[in-house]
Amino acid sequence: MIYIVLKQLKPIFFALLAAIFYAINVPFSKQLLQDVLPTFMASFLYFGAGIGVGILYLFHWKNEKPEERLKKENFPYTIGMILLDIFAPVFFNVRNQYRFFCKCLSAEQF
What we know:
Elements (H helix, E strand, L loop, with lengths): L1 H32 L4 H23 L14 H34 L2
């Protein structure tokens, strides 16, 4: 009985842990962004996440069922997701710089 309850609480625990790490990430990222460009920061974060997931996958691979593995027909979606994750912070940064540039131009007109 207790095992079943603990098994049901395990995903909730990991979801809360992920939320806590995400919340902690924001202030640390702001501190680091003072010295690091946002695009480099995003690339470092995604690179670190990729290494972490890769290490976890090495330990989990033996216990994984063959039907749970990534199939060839899923590769375009996976590559698209990776590219969007890479370019999203870059486009966000470009948009913010453009907005700042436009505000500076409108302030200089007066």
